[in-house]
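Complex record, two chains
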Amino acid sequence: MTTMQSTRVKARPSAPSPAPASRRRWRRPKGLGSLPLLLVVGFLILVPAGFVLLAAFSVDIPRPGSINFDLTLKHLAVFTEPGVLKATLNSLIIGVSATLLALLIGGFLAFVTARTNIPMRGFVFLIGLMPLFLPSYVGALAWSILGSPVAGLLNIGMRDLGIDFTVNIYSMGGVVLVMGMFYAPYAFLLMHSSMSLMNPDLEDAAGVHGGSTWQMLRSVTFPLALPAILGSALLVFTHIFENFPVSQVLATPGQIDTLPTFIYRLMNASPSRGNEAAVMAVVLVLVVLLVTLGQRRILARRSYTTVSGKGLKARRISLGRWRWPLFAVALVYLLLSIVLPLAALVLTAVRTSPYMQSFNDLSAPGAIDFGSFGRVLQSDLFLDSAGNSVLVAVVSAALGTVLAFLVGYTVYRTKAKARGALEGVSMVPLAIPAIVLGMGLLWTWLVMPVPLYGTLAVLMIAFIAVQMPQGLRGIASSIQSTERDLEDNAVLHGARRSRAVLSITVPLMRVGIASTFLMLLMLSMRELTVPLFLYTSDTHILSITIFDQFENGGALQQAAAMSVIYCLIMFVLSYLPRRLGSGGMTP
Amino acid sequence: MRRKLTLGLATTALLVLTTACGGGGSGESPASDAARNEVLPMPAKIDTSNGLVIDGERIADKQLFEAAKKDKVVLYSGSGKESEDLTIARFKAETGIDIELTRMPTNKLSERVLSEHGANQLGAGVVRVTDPLVAEEFAKRGVYVNYQPPSIGELAKGDNVVFNDGQYLTAYYSAYAFGYNSAAVQGKDVPKKWADLLDPKWKGKLGVVHAGAGGTVTALAAFQLDAFGEDYVKALGAQQPRIFDTTSVQLEALARGEITVATLGFNSTYGAEVAGAPVKLVVPEDGISGSFNLMGLTPAGEKSPAAKLFINWTMSKAGQKFAAAQGFVPARPGLEPTPTGEYQLPPADSEQFHLFTPEDAKERSASTVQTWNQAFHFTG
């Protein structure tokens, strides 16, 4: 650590002494743009959040037309409700265990692909990304088909083979497994970009001074990856903590209540108890803000710069005889997170009867019919939804990345006064359960005098707002590990700050920017809970259509066929950002 | 790098274009075939020479019909998706008028409708819900406006069919009973009466939707409490049933054999049976629970001839017959019984049919749900 900082300090005096005029300019930028930026981000996020806050303490639900400020504290009584404590506890257990699992999987895959000679590294890298193409809702649906205790395909298979063992995915373990597996890619993406860009000098130094590989990893590599690890832990935890679809599909049938399913039930009670749901949401916001502040404090004490425009070849560790066993571990993850779920969905889509007692049933004539794929592909509903989904996802991911970069730059590179506020505001959506924020967004865009409600634009705006935290975290871990000297030097030599940013910092960060775009693209393609409140019959998107087919339509077969095609579309879409960042993303 | 970027962008653009413009799908939903003839043969005579007349009953005069042809019904519904798909397909087939459906559970729909209405942006011409309290709230806030279809004279003869002089109407009643997986349960094992659900052989194999999930299931719980007492509900809870949030998901579990027997909404289950799921229904002699399916015209609907025509059609003999054929109980009194496939539901005024009235809903919903939750050890 000290080595690195002293290099940085030395770098400046060695630059030619600047002319007085430019001296002011090369100083840390003041971030004058921070105020308008704060206004934009604040408007996108705080107005809907404000509606939720108002709902928590107002007598009536603040709908357009009936907004008033009669305040009350009576909704706080919801905390005395039986089951709230249990649900909170369940959520915490699931959140912590599944985050650990996701970090373990993501960290393992990031490490072996970025820093070791594991066989078929490109393929293993893809394994780490692939679950992104399976929305957690679809993954949960597939796992409920696989692991339900009576009619689950795994259980049918084991009965066929005479194995006396029952998988029950409707359990705490089942929920943790599925959440951990499907959130591992976020941890993987964030940690991979940090590990692959690590300056080898420090590790070399450790090696030169006689440290073993393990000592080097422990005292240099992992501490350097700390921002990425903590950042992804925070991201993954809050995501899992507020995940509604997986809990709804897997925990609810096992009678395990979580906070989101509890809130969902409050919202769906008759009459709707939106006020109380909002109270619980406000508390969640406070908790997550505290966690975010804590993380900032831990990270603020040190410098984690690892990318400096100098040597970029990260060191590879030889795994020796562990190469193939570790490769097998990666394969097991692929099997559980992708192969089995997709196979279950395909099987469900092609089976003519949903009822099956043994795999032998499939050999009966007429048991299999691939027609459902054709019917789905030809239906207007699918074509419209798919087109809308792709359009909304591409636009909101692109704009979201730009906004995240602007905010990230202001927060981590300038002395702008508003930077703390900017980061805090940007992280707010992470803390508000999507199901509640969805209502806030609905109220916001209904009362706005601009006619956006009912258009695809409102979905795009909503996605940008909801995914701001993920975008910022993605950009932040990259910006923190990118040396700022090069940009400052360009300014020192007379370049405008904006030009220096565009031609030096952005290209240096292209891997981070590309992975942020990829992440936002996938998130937008997958987003289900927020658009549930915002879509109209003209603005169907794929995630909604599938949810509707299953949850409301009882059309599991069509839902399964559509899910498989949905995953394929996401796979194809992901090709673009991987090309963009080809320099570092594909090893 | 630049070439790769261009290539990537081009690929995406192409993908967006092909998916967005989509190579001319047929647009025929699987429901439309079933709606045409499978569920119920099309009416013998549809006369459009002077307005719209179906089997001798006038649905629309010439002026309304001509205007409706250029218009489109925008329907928001909290009723089951399968049945709404069938209904709109049938409506289209019988009248030739375009219709568009947005479907979501009643409580969510209510939030959405009240918000849109408050912002003067309610797009729906007709809104249909399954909870009398929600309909009342809509009426109070002016989501529903007065409208009297041609059949109003007939409708007014029934109890609880026309509300506030036509501000909203009961479209039909939903029936709730039980059913089983027909591949797993056969012969003597088939349950016939409500008491049969307490048989120890169903322990852990029974499915229910929790009583707080919506009007239909609250009605079922109230019926069970009234007809068989709290002990029955407790004994049912002791069967360790799997508890679901929505009927559709439960139906899927039943079809897969994850559960074997379940209390079920009649029309959605029948829809699944017609679609080929191995499920069968029971119409128990000792009673069946009924709840309301209400609809009304909105301020936007006042300006939409198609929306008015849709209400006229729904309350016509043809519309009511189709509802009956799908597993609803018609609201319009005095109609000949129409079977639902192999089943025959009792008429609305029969002893066998236990209706959960709007007054019941107001007075007893909360306590019913609470009792049920305690019996099933359910928090919600």
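Note: DSSP finds 29 helices and no strands in chain A.
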